[in-house]
Amino acid sequence: MSSHRAKTGIQAFDNMISGGLIAGSANLIEGAPGTGKTTLAMQFIYNGIVKYNEPGLIITFEEFPQQFYHDALELGWDLRALEKEGMLRVIFSDPETTLHEIENPEGDFVSLIEEYDVKRVAIDSMTHFEYLTRDHYEVRDIERRFINALKREGVTSVLLKENDALLGQVPNSITSKTPFVVDTYILLRYVEVESAIRKALLILKMRGSQHDKDIRQYAITPTGIEVEETFEGHEGIMSGITHRKPQEAFMNVFGKK
Amino acid sequence: MSSHRAKTGIQAFDNMISGGLIAGSANLIEGAPGTGKTTLAMQFIYNGIVKYNEPGLIITFEEFPQQFYHDALELGWDLRALEKEGMLRVIFSDPETTLHEIENPEGDFVSLIEEYDVKRVAIDSMTHFEYLTRDHYEVRDIERRFINALKREGVTSVLLKENDALLGQVPNSITSKTPFVVDTYILLRYVEVESAIRKALLILKMRGSQHDKDIRQYAITPTGIEVEETFEGHEGIMSGITHRKPQEAFMNVFGKK
Amino acid sequence: MSSHRAKTGIQAFDNMISGGLIAGSANLIEGAPGTGKTTLAMQFIYNGIVKYNEPGLIITFEEFPQQFYHDALELGWDLRALEKEGMLRVIFSDPETTLHEIENPEGDFVSLIEEYDVKRVAIDSMTHFEYLTRDHYEVRDIERRFINALKREGVTSVLLKENDALLGQVPNSITSKTPFVVDTYILLRYVEVESAIRKALLILKMRGSQHDKDIRQYAITPTGIEVEETFEGHEGIMSGITHRKPQEAFMNVFGKK
Amino acid sequence: MSSHRAKTGIQAFDNMISGGLIAGSANLIEGAPGTGKTTLAMQFIYNGIVKYNEPGLIITFEEFPQQFYHDALELGWDLRALEKEGMLRVIFSDPETTLHEIENPEGDFVSLIEEYDVKRVAIDSMTHFEYLTRDHYEVRDIERRFINALKREGVTSVLLKENDALLGQVPNSITSKTPFVVDTYILLRYVEVESAIRKALLILKMRGSQHDKDIRQYAITPTGIEVEETFEGHEGIMSGITHRKPQEAFMNVFGKK
Amino acid sequence: MSSHRAKTGIQAFDNMISGGLIAGSANLIEGAPGTGKTTLAMQFIYNGIVKYNEPGLIITFEEFPQQFYHDALELGWDLRALEKEGMLRVIFSDPETTLHEIENPEGDFVSLIEEYDVKRVAIDSMTHFEYLTRDHYEVRDIERRFINALKREGVTSVLLKENDALLGQVPNSITSKTPFVVDTYILLRYVEVESAIRKALLILKMRGSQHDKDIRQYAITPTGIEVEETFEGHEGIMSGITHRKPQEAFMNVFGKK
Amino acid sequence: MSSHRAKTGIQAFDNMISGGLIAGSANLIEGAPGTGKTTLAMQFIYNGIVKYNEPGLIITFEEFPQQFYHDALELGWDLRALEKEGMLRVIFSDPETTLHEIENPEGDFVSLIEEYDVKRVAIDSMTHFEYLTRDHYEVRDIERRFINALKREGVTSVLLKENDALLGQVPNSITSKTPFVVDTYILLRYVEVESAIRKALLILKMRGSQHDKDIRQYAITPTGIEVEETFEGHEGIMSGITHRKPQEAFMNVFGKK
């Protein structure tokens, strides 16, 4: 497994994925509102530029670039400066145009990728492709074609996807076929622990690479995403509502043998 | 994170959100009937005026202003007096008109915001936008446009949203895309504890700011919302139906080590 | 909170709601079949007349008045006698007519309320408004208009609503928007305790008033509703299927410390 | 509560309902396939004739009378003999005809009730009325009219209703509005206890009468339904899948204090 | 209960049903894929011929007879030989033809039953009748007519039905009305026990006969179905995912008193 | 049970299925994204060629052959080399064409199977047949015809199927009728154990063969699928979210007796 890796620059996370995302792969990041999907994507693009010298492209279907500049700046990342240096493009577009201009070998996005020598792309978000048609198969086909076009250009992409589940068991089912089409499938989830809401990250799929199977805590700190330890001592994490393992409860009362 | 803050004037709550809502942001407050959404919004507007000298605007799509005056007065807040002082407007409108008059730079609501130098806006409730069309994407688009218009005017808004879930796990899923569009997402929930119904508040999302991750109790007191402690010693809070942690139960019987 | 109170005459219940329902308010009582909704409504009307001298009006959309007379008489309440005294009217109507005759300031129900000086109204049940149209918003609007008309007349109303949930977690969600529109929202539920079915009452919402947050047991006795203690020592009451708290179980075996 | 009672002749069951069903009332018995609904109805009719001298009528919408004769004979009840004595009629009909001939004061079923002086009626089953129309309100209206017609004739009726739930929490919701329309609502359910399937009976509603709140076991014996004890020592009965109360489990291991 | 019995030849199973299926009855066997429905049906037919001298008929709507011959031979049952002896017919047909040819007193299947003196019939599967129409009532009516035709011919039938539930509580509801129409209702289910999948058999309904209420384990052995013991010591069997009873767990640690 | 076996070459897995898949059978492998369905299929085909000298055919409806070559090479399997040797064909097609060319005895796929003497076929994936029509019965019929055609050609097939369930109880139901039509039904599932996501494999159905009933762990290693031990000491595996058996928890604290 000697594939070239596109490091995210988040050390603990890169460790989980054997060094980084596989160069040229399509990586889905799915989570509920507030789980930090966009932050993770911006961090991947920002670090790509400043740490690994890989020019980036952010395509957004809802937020204006101003919002990206502003939110990134709060985290200490000056995207506008990077744009001026010719290392980044943040573009507001719509799914239909985007598909067309990236699928067509002479499309605008293809030209842009080649002109800027873009190596990393973030899409915010794949969910907007679902609004193009009500035919499930067509959505799947559109997403497949879009992902294939990104791969043809050789870029490493981070594809964001909205997940409506806040907590609980019901939503533990995929709601679109996207996870079957991508190379990597990363889930961000809320978890209730001891009367607080923490965040959990797990990697369910990573084609052509070994990856950590742990469910890890992470935080959105003033300087970006930080991946932390597992939820040791708790059960039912993916149910969203944990409980202490009975063993832990016993030991706290009777002492450890 | 030096953003200007719009304090709610509820001390414990302002502490949870690093000092206050971010000035100019759109803040969603979602809860079941009786969880105090409207009280929280009125308190934000009232305190804004009397404590922080920020003129307010309340737009309501269902209740008549009289109901607001009456309910606020029960809590000791004389909205009518504030209206006479030119510091507040309480307006009964419909979603369609409201969208038009705030999106259009020369619309009535825009004029009103400018004339009164309105700094805080409360919308009761976003749910009514969902009745405008059955097309989910269109609802999302309408809400996005509405929120963008509020931001363009620079006001700090509190957007109420009805949540049909009383208790239990099934509704632990968002039912519209609004939480993805707003800056802040605050949930109010009922929780059964020891044969009583208490209320829980948690902040799931706050763009550009650190915030408390605790699930906190709160009460609607004769003088407004008061945020209290966590549910320490109980598990399963977000399921709506808690149980004592086994450890707590053991300790109560066998004593603490 | 000095609002005038319309006492129900059920002492323990009046205590839970700071003395009584707020005069002029609209109060929703929701429950499964057999939970005693109609009994509670009749008791409110009957006590209003004989204890507090407030004339009453019962509007029923399904049961004939004869059934009301008969059922009330079983509980010792002679409604027919009260009708003869001019203190009560029991009327069988349909939702459409009722809405029209109460919304129109010169409608039949308005005249009747004024002629009899009616102070208390019971509607059995709000559920029948849902059959008027399949448009959710229209139902909400009809109910809002109906409730506003009742308020305009200044009567204190008890609005019954059928809840299809017998037990269990799934139905812990409101099934219509009525609870958002009313002033008070009271839930009646079945609860399994120790191989028996008991009944639980809780108040989720009461605009402009403090109220008890306890989940209380109640019984339908030969003389009407009686509100009793909480379910102390049991958990999961709102799930419909309780279990003893582990602590209680431990103490019963090992003794109390 | 001195209403005349129509005893079922099942001693333990009559005790649960203060002596018997209320004469002239409409009594819903709901259960999954195999819970003994038909057996209970036949027993009510058979005992009515042989023990209390009340002529009976069984209307069936699916089974042929031959099946009834055969199944009853297995339980020692010779329905055919009772028909010959002029004390019973078993009639195969369809819901539409039945409604018409019982609602119309000069209809065939009305004549039959009067000619035979029928006091008890069994309907197998109410579920077939649901096939008449897809309009929920119309079903409710049809059932209400049907029940009112039965009441007008003064008969005590046992109305069977199919429940699709075998076990588990999801179906703990009523699936039609029938329970709101009838006087009595009796549920028959399967319950898993110690790797066996037992049967539970409970009375959720009984207008104008006190009734036992216990969840009772019952069996279909070679001589008919027998009502037995509660499920003492088990929890979660209405979930369909019980567990021993932890207290019981402890006591079996550590002994009783 | 002296009805003539059609023994299945599976000793432990015949014991559960008071000696055998009731001659002339319609018996539904429902289960998920792989639970051995077809094996059970073939065993009933095979044993009928070789042990009890009752000619058999298998009607299949999907599998070719070749598959039946092959699968049966794996279990040591030479169906082809029995066909040659004139004791068995295995016929591939479609639901529409089958209904017609068995309902019509001069239909092909009626002739065949009479010619071969068929006593036992297996239908694989009833599920295919559901594809004939989308009208639930029509499906019920078709199945009722089909079953009545089988009864008219006096055969003992085993009717297979596909159940989509693999494990878990949600599917604990019947998905068609067939169980209400048949005489016997037997469920085959998967159950997780100690990190393995076992199989459970239970009889929910058996008209005119006593039957075992136990939930029994069974296995598909190289010589056919074998019914085994209950799941003693485990709870929650019908949830599909058992757990040890706490009592058992305690005793294994602390010893039995 | 002396059927010829098509070994997968995964020793522990072949042991679970009495030596291998039955030659000529249709074997369904179902799992969520990332569970290794495709890896398992490639391993079956690759081992078939290099270990058992059985030529293989892979038909893919979404991935290009290049992706297969690449992913296989990561696992050390040089598919392209095998193609050159004439032992393998990897073909990108669509469901419609595939059905036609394999059902028609003179179709392209039939010719190819005969020309290459193909013994093993992998289909990635059956799910794509569901996009051909919205009629459930037609999907079933298409799949049955497709499977019959494969059987007619005598090949041993591995049919992949996408399962949308990530974790939890809700999806424990089959979502298509495919499992009823195939000979073997193998489930791959995610399971949360101790704050990590592991993978579980179980065999629910295997016509004409004994098979292991254990729920086994497995891993996708750098050299392919490896089947490991059971989840001993944990309960609730098929719920997706395990917990330690209380007995285990006790023993860890109090010691083993």
Report on this structure.
The structure is a homohexamer of 257-residue chains. Chain A has 257 residues and is α/β, with parallel strands linked by helices. The first copy, chain A, has a single domain (5-188), classed as Rossmann fold, CATH 3.40.50.300. Chain A is built from nine helices and 13 strands. Chain A has a nine-stranded mixed beta sheet with strand order 5-4-6-7-3-8-9-10-11. In chain A, strand 12 (234-235) and strand 13 form a beta hairpin. The B-C interface holds B 32-34, 62, 64, 70-71, 74, 131, 162, 164-171, 190, 192, 194-198, 222, 240-244, 246, 248-250, 252-255 and C 1, 3, 136-137, 144, 148, 169-170, 172-175, 177, 179-181, 185, 187, 202, 204-210, 213-215, 230-232, 234-239, 245-247, 250-251, 254, 256-257.
